[in-house]
Amino acid sequence: MTLDDLLLPDTPVCTAATDVARAYCSPALLNHCVRSYIWAAVHGAEQDIAFDPELLYVGAMFHDIALVPEFDSHTVPFDDASAHVARVFAAGAGWSESRRERLAEVVISHMLDEVDVTKDPEGHLLERSTSLDISGRHMDDFSAAFKAEVLARHPRAGIAEEFLACFRDQAERKPGSSPATALRDGIAERILTNSLD
């Protein structure tokens, strides 16, 4: 598969999600969000995992939105805060309450170590793709040629350093949060040695 074989979901909601992400995310974080969808969707297609492309795409656009200052919460972990922002966005887009809740679940799931694909395919795919993009897990899911093609079109632009700084800030202010746990578990070294950089 090549990048040109992947069609991004072309719905008004996906377009609006991209617009919001572009307005608030740095170029590095925006590219991370786009790559996260690409890795997830391609892996899902190659593994015959049935998933909702629109739900996965919006989840990818919003999964880290609370790392930006405008949506940073000083009271809840960033993954929970990102889910709240995504839920509000989806309500404005006219999604049903159950679909908004699914979106929140997908966003929160991306920080888990593993998500059961049979229970939450979109969460599974987003967890897998974000961990590849940030810490280099599941690197063998894609060929070297495909990874190079994705990175040429959506460059890293310093995401490792930016993301690690965000995680350290979150961990310092919220010692019980998922970034704090990840840092205690050694994610900093994995981020800085990710072979995608």
UniProtKB/TrEMBL annotation:
Gene3D superfamilies: Hypothetical protein af1432. Pfam families: HD. Residues 25-101 form the HD/PDEase domain. InterPro entries: HD/PDEase_dom, HD_domain. This is Putative cyanamide hydratase. It comes from Streptomyces atroolivaceus. The lineage of its organism: Bacteria, Bacillati, Actinomycetota, Actinomycetes, Kitasatosporales.
